[in-house]
Design a protein that fits this description.
Mean pLDDT: 78
Low-confidence stretches: 1-7, 113-153
Number of strands: 18
Helix content: 10-25%
Structural class: alpha+beta
Oligomer: single chain
Number of helices: 4
Strand order of the largest sheet: 4-3-2-1-8-9
Length: 252
């Protein structure tokens, strides 16, 4: 492990947060965020997928010798953080409210340790989200790339592979799943300026994407069936659940 970490960058969606300098950036552009909302974000990013209680947040943001109206201050910090992230309490993509308990960070993320050269014998570690599969897929999808190569019998050679970009829109595109035959990719996106995440399918060989779901609620974490004929996904519609839809479209 590094004895001293100069920088710790956490990436999620189109955002990245520097937990050391307390800076939030969106697509490389700095987002103005006050100290308390950022510290709330940091508390959530340190425990992704887990509930961070109101008491734990109070201890981190307002020590015992600080006198504030806690409920009002926490609500204000949460509201400003959501504004910076373009998030909402009703249909959260990043920060979920757990009534009367606290908050939970729900988006996949990857936390990368500093690139500082370690001392002799030290190891550089990479910390990942508790959801390793989702986090790995999310990292690929944000960039929007896929590896392809010509078929052949030769042993694996990195020079035979070509890095090819699949998505070009300015919106969020992440959590991809590739069909078993490698011909289709499905992913969650808010492309087109939509207020919610929907599923989109496109051929890995190229071509325009096809919108698979159109609900106003967020729908994400898609995965193809073994034969590629169906897609299973998570939806926030009707209180939330797991749905299946034909990969050609139709009613989930």
């Amino acid at each position: 492990m590094l004895s001293e970490q100069k920088s710790r960058i956490v990436r999620f969606g189109v955002f990245e947060a520097d937990l050391l300098t307390r800076e939030l950036r969106k697509r490389g552009v700095r987002v103005r965020l006050q100290e308390q909302p950022f510290r709330l974000l940091q508390a959530l990013l340190e425990r992704p997928g887990q509930i961070v209680t109101r008491d734990e947040i109070k201890d981190k943001l307002w020590p015992d010798d600080t006198f504030v109206d806690f409920d009002k201050s926490l609500n204000t910090a949460a509201q400003k953080l959501r504004q910076a992230l373009g998030d909402s309490a009703e249909s959260p993509r990043f920060m979920e409210t757990i009534p009367r308990r606290g908050y939970r960070f729900i988006a996949p993320l990857i936390t990368t340790a500093s690139t500082e050269t370690p001392a002799d014998g030290a190891e550089v570690s990479t910390k990942r989200s508790p959801w390793p599969a989702v986090a790995a897929l999310g990292a690929v999808a944000v960039i929007g790339w896929w590896w392809s190569s010509e078929p052949g019998d030769a042993a694996f050679d990195p020079d035979d592979f070509q890095l090819r970009r699949l998505t070009y829109d300015g919106g969020l595109a992440y959590q991809p799943s590739i069909s078993k035959d490698g011909k289709l990719v499905v992913y969650a996106s808010d492309r087109g300026g939509q207020d919610s995440l929907n599923l989109w399918v496109q051929q890995t060989a190229g071509g325009d994407p096809f919108q698979l779901t159109t609900d106003s609620a967020d729908e994400y974490e898609p995965s193809f069936s073994a034969d590629g004929s169906q897609v299973v996904f998570v939806s926030k519609r009707d209180g939330g659940g797991i749905y299946v839809v034909s990969s050609l479209g139709g009613q989930p």
